């Protein structure tokens, strides 16, 4: 596994990325030209056998097995590690070691300075379509301690290369649903299902869904086509990061995000249009409240 991950990091690291202003977290990204120089978080075997080590192990368990261990907080088929690959360790997959040292930070999304716990609560509310645990809950402490440990040796308030997802610029010709559908059929459906429904074994997801009631909701960062394209280009197909062209990444991201998913929990007065104006009009490239083939998207899936 180590060797595979190292190979993946090397191939992903050779792609170039552009920097953005630090206070704009709508699209996390980091300048990164040094191929193999990614930060290496500590190994599990380095963990001390004491109360701190125990807390790290608990945080790790919650991160990779979130749905099963925190059913009250998760409203879909995701674990944190569904989008933060290799247990939150992988560069260009919004690794926890890239995140932890960068908080507290201002976020446009909720227009305030967010603590690290508040940042995680955001992923519970939107990406996990759930109910965030309290900032002082044992689970939140464990998730924070796990992140803190992974970040051992990084510098606070200085971006570590490999943080976030590198930005994939929108191709000059935009994106195309039909081409995206074709990429999906050829390279994604085998794992994520013909209808983006994922795959279950004995009622438990072994491959996460990409749309529908068990996916991330309309308020999640991944609902932006630009963010999904970045994640996809650097992380998918699983085991072959960097193999899609920018165009293919945008096309397939658009295809995924033109499907229904759970409603944005910030829904304004029951109105898709009001919600679009308030939260989606200036939030990257997204289809919430847009008419596609005669149907307004953002209806939600009833959960
Ligand atoms: C559906 C995919 C998805 C899931 C599931 C998910 N996240 Fe995220 N997470 C993202 C995206 C996308 C971003 C980047 C946000 C952006 O660009 O706005 C992010 C950002 C973050 C950040 C900040 C990264 C940084 O560098 O500032 C942290 C911390 C984080 N997530 C933790 C979690 C935790 C903990 C969980 C589980 C409770 C979780 N995420 C579940 C997609 C996901
Ligand atoms: C070999 C199986 C496989 C293939 C092929 C594959 N994926 Fe994935 N994908 C996964 C797994 C597994 C995860 C969750 C990560 C984990 O658990 O390690 C994932 C996670 C994701 C996620 C974030 C989590 C979610 O459910 O929203 C997206 C988006 C995604 N894949 C898109 C794609 C796209 C687009 C393609 C095709 C270009 C693709 N995947 C091809 C296995 C695959």
TrEMBL record:
Residues 175-260 form the Cytochrome c domain. The keyword Cell cycle does not apply. Residues 1-17 form the signal peptide. It holds the Pfam family SoxA-TsdA_cyt-c. InterPro entries: Cyt_c-like_dom (IPR009056), Cyt_c-like_dom_sf (IPR036909), Cytochrome_c-type_DH (IPR051459). One of its GO terms (molecular function) is heme binding. Gene3D superfamilies: Cytochrome c-like domain. Keywords: Heme, Iron, Metal-binding, Signal. The keyword Magnesium does not apply. PANTHER family: BLL4482 PROTEIN-RELATED, CYTOCHROME C DOMAIN-CONTAINING PROTEIN. This is Cytochrome C.
